Amino acid sequence: MDFSDYKGIYVVAIPKYGEIQKVTGELIGASRELAVELNESVSVVLVGSEIRDKAQELIQLGADFVYGMDAPIFTHYDGVAFQKALTGFFKEKKPNIVMFGADPYGRDLAPRMAADLVCGVTADVTELSVEPETKLVVWSRPAMGGNIMADIVCPDFRPQVGKGW
After folding, report:
1. Which of 138, 142, 143, 144 is CA-nearest to residue 162?
2. What DSSP state is assigned to residue 28?
């Protein structure tokens, strides 16, 4: 399948009590490292209410672009509302990679998004790398009760979706 239209690394950021969560900064940092290897940009999709003043903070954390979804409906987390807004956005943008935090929001939203976008999602990611030949993301996560690390790649679908940290 041709995935040449799929570009960019997107981090989904959902503020908690009006503040950017620590996990968002960690995801931006991990995305920055991937972006260098893949020659991609890092974008943050910030979803919340009264969040316009947070864009500069995300740029300072390493985002190239910030897309804001600022509406009263996003004041409190509603999985269905967030899902609908993000599904349309990602179908239009066609990201190569989408990352969610392993917080309650990401744990609910990532599988919803993967179902809508017809792709998989790797949960509980703790390390990221890139396969040199294929340029696919290698999502590493604990397996077998934490005794080994499992490496997961997604060669057949886009976007490549993971949640972690």
Report:
1. 138
2. H
* Residues contacting 112, CB < 8 A, separation 6+: 79, 83
Q: Which residues contact 143 (CB under 8 A, 6 or more apart)?
A: 149, 150
Contacts of 86 (CB under 8 A, 6+ apart): 12, 45, 47, 69, 109, 113
In sequence order, the 6+-apart residues with CB closer than 8 A to the CB of 144 are none
81: exposed, middle or buried (C-beta count within 10 Å: 0-12, 13-18, 19+)? Answer: middle
Q: Whole-prediction pTM value?
A: 0.94
pLDDT of 66-112, one tens digit each? 999 999 999 999 999 999 999 999 999 999 999 999 999 999 999 99
Q: Is 55 within 8 Å of 38 (Cβ atoms)?
A: no
Closest residue by Cα to residue 26 from 38, 41, 42: 42
Strand partners, 69: 47
Structure tokens given for 87: 């599904």
Q: Which residues pair with 160 in a beta bridge?
A: 97
Q: Which residues, in sequence order, are bridge partners of residue 70?
A: 48
**CA dihedral (145, 146, 147, 150) positive or negative:** positive
CA atoms within 13 A on the CB side of 151: 8
